[in-house]
Design a protein that fits this description.
The structure is a homohexamer. By secondary structure, chain A is an alpha/beta fold. Chain A contains 13 helices and ten strands. In chain A, strands 1-2-3-4-5-6-7-10 form an eight-stranded parallel β-barrel, surrounded by five helices. Chain A has a two-stranded antiparallel ribbon with strand order 8-9. In chain A, strand 4, helix 8 and strand 5 form a beta-alpha-beta unit. In chain A, helix 11 packs parallel to helix 12.
């Protein structure tokens, strides 16, 4: 009702953008959040070739779709990550991976994110969503005992690497929206708070609010919204479920998504536990009027069943504040 | 009532063993589980110097204490861990750390664990508790996408490194009991299962059952006992609490223990959520008759208040099965 | 399915009845519960002017709508209330408010409720819903210590003021249905019980059952129905939500509706916690066959989105008892 | 989406099959699970009269319906039951009841079940669903104290009576699917396990999985599926609700279904507590690709409202696994 | 504090009364509730031999113990039970069992209960606790469909058999207290209500309130007390635990007590889930001032550990109402 | 262990202070929090008569008791309350009540609170606990609709009346600690926040933290402590219980304390739901080192049973932070 609903194309990058656009428009989506992988939004081509950006615009327009954000999760992940290994090689282009030397990968990734901001500006969108990576995520167990300085160093490394990137964002008038997520510098409520502090809470940096990553951690999506509301620059409609039966643990047992022994999993929106009704109200309260962008991940069903189902969920639950107290009508007017 | 209660000395290693023994005996403990750090049980001295082991026995006997197990958590951690860094340097002797080259540390640690088995045999205890480390714990987030082979490789690395160690355990008639714990090769129910599979479920390897690490992960301690009962070679009476209030997440936010913003924390036994009454019954059901060994960690109170409190908990809740049905007394005997 | 669904016009009284009727009929409602404020059902005109009642009938008929009840919540509130102050001035006509002298307001309100019964009879409806006010609601904290006689006096004051009113209801063959609600003489299960006792459980007085006011108090709507079933003369489909996060308290903090810091709030039916499916079954069990009347209050969305959504909820969940055991078909008939 | 949806005709056996088929087809069902009572599938006629089976096929085909299973719950119940009394007389044909001598009834019932397998084979369906009865269900209270031999004897009686029946099933290539249910030899998780053991887990015997009977007992339907998955030969979409309010107990108080004082009851699918979404996923995980067969029982609403509602639930929640990891699309392809 | 605490000797009947008395007195119990089996209180001897009753008194007096009630659970069970089988043979004397003819057993049991009342009167106690048996408990599953007349007949059978017994109780001034329990005519809240109705709520019949049987059924012990308060003639401090983990069901799977796969079990008071603190308050509210009688059943521990532990629980939690409002001290007295 | 435990004498004011002191000392209390009613601490005498204060000191010293705070709940209540009625007459001295004119009572009460600060200073205590009253508590239902200005006016009235009082507190170096409580200007989390804002968060005003009033409102005592920690000047160990069974509502039904139909009630510490263990830890975290002052209210038991029981609870659960990380002992020291 109130907000446009877009489809994030990251999980559809095996298909040409043309195909994804046709599907999304057919289901009734209002727009796409373009992934910077597959052929959906290629940063290098966007900056090199004037016609490329127009080609993306054409595809969208032909299907009556809009675009409010592009996303660089995979390259962004490499900026701070440690270790850099085969996992990263699998998800970034060879021009970023290069010879795979860790620090080289990180620096090339950082440059690519700067270029992503520049390309976004050219394309006319104000938000780049993405990941940051982290040198300290791996210390999660806090054993062997972690000296406080090691934690502090991790946040500082993030600031050192991202401040120059954010300078570019400022220059081109675009904002970066981190998706708070395991393996990132911010992965829950308190780490999000410390992340903002690490960079002096500069305006160029905010969040792509995705409740699915908070829900299974037992963090309240609403609490996150009320605390960080003005920094919510974008949002993902993504869902997770807890399946804690005494054997399945909340850490997931290093099992793959879709395995019923995991203590939590991603599922199609509406089939898990995220309180979307309350989430949409909270987003209204903090004034978020950007798109509801469906990020669809569910190993237990087909995406072609899931995507229209998720859209229907958004249409049914989203709501516009009335701007008027319901008991105003009680007033005596004589 | 039924089982002896011991105090694990790991968190008291800043004190001489003499002092710890005097305290424990004064509170009424039946014995000590000796840590292989501080001066409590030094493996190198035990093997080098005939009088050292006798000196440990003397201290125990003077206070009427027994010993059923020694523990090598800190050195054991280095055997498989990756990365090896400043955290490890802080907790192992310099003869293990050496020049800090990672693979060298791992190999020296492996040799030390073998020696620990030998020393245990000389000392006359049948159980060595400890950690294993893990190369794959750090992939917990499962993002960037982790190929199945990387997980498999982690379990294989564990098997490759520990099978030779366990051969020594078999030779000297001692068993290794892994404490299932974050940052180890087994940290929950399903990873414990796969860990046993990785080494062909050989008898030399079992578990030091510690419910505090399972409880906060929402894994049922009872379910663990019934599944792995015959491999429970030792147990820790340690406690944790969940303090999930919508802001605190279950991953702990990289905050230090004792910080109220953590989603869970260690506390003195009886002050958290571990269902010790049910745990003791389940241990009876699987036939565990070893010691209840108090591992005391609570940053919010003094250990001198906590240790006797934990002992009292064990005495109150532990119980002996009757071996007789309660309705046997209904039988008509005429 | 089973029961007609009506829209209570109280929250739409800023619009002319003609407009409300058109909207409601367009959404598919079966009828309206007319508020005695705005221009929806004006008691003074109804009694003074023969054509007025016909004009209301005409509007309803033109849109194919029926009417089973009218409502006098605002004037009814003044009958017993104490104190009488600016809040009341805001909601009653100046002919009731007069000079604002408290006792005068109460007595004029009492006369108006009698006239409302007379007007209802002329209009041909058998139920007048409404509030009563209360002199003792304000003692809810029970501190400073409240002598039992003060509580008893409050119930007696209610009986003294309402018995003469109910006499008029009996004379004209109409019943009064109190909406159990904070600030009224009956606001929960036990106060409802004592309220009935205070007036000898006379038939002229029953309840307009509204589960939204019970749910947030943790009173079971079903328990209320089974206890007071034969006195349920009308019902409101209204919804509330509990948003108790450790900071928000169940008393609401004197914050206005729609503020996310309130511990509970009114929301559009289906978006809160009232168990409407069980409520409709329970109403079947006690034989309630009157309308399901949607009272719509939700400061977080527009009433034009909410009203058809609430109607759809009723249509989907309401149900007709089968009058036959499902296992009757198992009977062997040869 | 994934699986066909059928209607079990047992609760519609007061109507001619022709009528039921017309209704089901009109609502959009894919097929019928025919009850062996009423005129729906009469075993004696099927074996005696060549045209009877064709007449059933004709009715189904005329309405575009298929059949995957027939059901013999009522006769099956008599095979092991004790006592045999008026309850059984009410539900079996007089040719089974005969003079009502208990052992005679049991043996005639056993022969009838054999014939049902033969008739199923002729009809071309591979599954016969049904009950078994039990001599030991009545000892549920375990008081007066029950000697272990009495329990063992009950499982043996089951094996002795059903093995010869299952021999016939094997001969004709049909399987028997017991609906785990109070009053049967298997009524929960552990009794199901012991039941399989009693007959050496022979393949001819499996389960008609019905989550409604597990849910109110607090047994997890998912846990049942993962344990007994390969023995799930058929499934019922049937629903139950728990209404435990402190007075209503989980044993049901010997009150009839539909009485609100029962601690649990059967209700129309979607109106109770069975986690159908998780159930359908679990069935996918164990490879069940048979029909979702709606068994409709709800004394609080009409079956004509309920049957299409249940079908809609299945269509909405059922799902097809994607066979592809969602993060496969992240792979860099250059 | 407030009420005496007694030990029910039923589970100790393998020991001579002399031994039980010595133990109980040693632990600090105030008295014994004597079982009418073993040698504790033999009804036939009590009526036949003048010195027998005095011998019981002597044993009690020698240990400073009192007696408020005797108990005939085992014989009482036979009065209405059906079937009568080996279970009953195991628990009643051969003079009751006779040739084992069911109706003969029932009638001899009925006579014995009458004699028990007479013996109680001679012994000077006013309460006989016990069971009744039931012809309809076995129909708990309500399948095969149970005609309402069968249920009604069961309650009538109870009334027909017990009214003559209760006539004797009235004659000798003693009351019968049924322990509401599975396998009895009353086993939960609603069956207790119908049981009272069946005998016209005559005063000779009340309840031996035992919360352990209600708790696992999810019936609130407090709700039972407030409903049936004036009929609570005696009470048992007995405990149960729910261990519902998704596999264990609430019906207990026909597994023996003490098996961890049961969904519930009996445990030593304080080690399960019965809310004894609230129970003792509720008993105060309804004016129960009889003994708290510990019935100890826990297959997981020894009775010699459990009995003093249960006594300590009673001493700690029992409480005396103050008879004065706490805010009375606020009154200004000048 | 860590903090002194005192007994608040308010509920013992019917006894002479001498008697209360003797009891408290006998049970082992460390001190008393003296109520300014009864003869415990009479403000007028304290200021008028030099020997009075010494007499109080003498009584305390004779019993080895200390005093950290005095309390003026009853008089404080009158400062802002509206209405002023018979309830107030019952609890304040006639010199405050005077002719009962509401505004006169308020002003005399305000002067008395100033004098209480002066007397406290002379007596040598730094904290005066108390209530404030409120003109807006009675608007809790928010119906009839309350204009925002009415709420604002209530907070302003509080500021206008209390700022001059607090000026006196500042002058004499004493602080006022409001007990957040229904019927006061601050009664929950958000009203406490707005109360502080109303007076510019001046240091003279803080809170007497009493978790019992927060718990039943579903406000987290820990959340309150972390938000308002530096303003917690004193604390009460008082307990409440929730007894919400579907009939009892959280508003209490205007029933008196001790009535089991109330949805919540006050009970002896340890017998309700306040998480005292977590509360004491949180108080440590914010640095509260004042007394734990037992305020004992429980209509269901005698205060002479309750007071020592509450003291034992404090001694058992209170705890001293260790000031040292538990894993510090892991450090390698070679």
């Amino acid at each position: 009702m109130a907000r446009p609903v877009t489809l994030f194309t990251g999980q559809w990058a095996d298909l040409p953008l043309e195909t994804v656009a046709e599907k999304a428009a057919g289901w009734g989506y209002d727009g796409l959040e373009l992934a910077c992988w597959g052929d959906h939004f290629e940063v290098d081509k966007a900056l090199a070739d004037d016609s490329y950006i127009q080609s993306r615009r054409d595809i969208l327009e032909q299907h009556g779709l809009k675009c409010w954000a592009i996303s660089t999760h995979l390259v962004g992940q490499c900026v701070c990550d440690d270790p850099i290994d085969a996992r990263h090689m699998g998800i970034v282009p060879s021009r970023i991976w290069g010879n795979g030397d860790a620090e080289g990968v990180r620096q090339r990734a950082a440059e690519e994110v700067k270029n992503t901001a520049r390309a976004a500006a050219e394309f006319g969108v104000e938000i780049v969503n993405g990941f940051t990576g982290s040198t300290i995520w791996k210390y999660l167990a806090m054993f062997p005992p972690v000296p406080p300085e090691m934690i502090a160093a991790g946040y500082k490394d993030f600031a050192d690497r991202w401040n120059p990137i954010l300078d570019v964002f400022d220059q081109v008038g675009v904002k970066f929206a981190l998706e708070v997520h395991p393996s990132e510098i911010a992965f829950d409520f308190w780490s999000a708070k410390r992340t903002l502090e690490a960079i002096g809470s500069r305006q160029a940096f905010g969040f792509n609010f995705d409740p699915s990553h908070l829900y299974w951690q037992m963090v309240s999506p609403e609490a996150f919204i009320y605390e960080f509301g003005e920094r919510i620059y974008h949002m993902h409609v993504k869902e997770s479920v807890r399946q804690l039966d005494g054997r399945n643990g909340v850490l997931g047992s290093l099992l793959f998504f879709g395995d019923h022994r995991r203590g939590w999993d991603f599922v199609s929106p509406g089939r898990g536990g995220v309180p979307f009704e309350r989430v949409f109200r909270a987003l209204n309260d903090v004034g978020y009027d950007g798109p509801l962008s469906v990020e669809w991940e569910d190993n237990g069903m087909t995406r072609d069943q899931g995507a229209p189902e998720a859209l229907a969920l958004c249409r049914r639950l989203d709501l516009t504040p009335s701007g008027q107290a319901f008991d105003a009508a009680f007033a005596s007017k004589d």
